Amino acid sequence: MVTQTQIEKISSKYYFLGAIVVSVIALTSYFGTNQYFKGDVNSVPKETTGQPDLAIDKIYLDSSNRLSVVHSNQSTTEVTSDTKGHTYIYIYKNSDGSLYKKWTYSWSTLKDKNFLKANGSSIIQPQKLDSNDYTIQACIDPNNVVTNESNEAGKFDCATGSSANNFKKYNLKDQNKITVSVLPLSSSELIQGQNRDVFKFTVTASNVDIYLDRLTFQLAATPDVGATPDASAKIYLQDPQLYDASQTDSGSELNKTVIYDNAYQHLADDDDGSKDGIVDFRNIENIVFDFISPYKVPAGTTKTFIIKANVFDKNTVGTSYLSLTLLRDQTSISYDSVDDLDGGAGDSAYNFIWSDYKYPLVTEDKWLNGYTVKGGPSFTLVLSKTH
Question: How distant, in Å, are the alpha carbons of 83, 86, 142, 148, 293 from that of 108?
Answer without folding.
Answer: 7, 9, 16, 19, 52
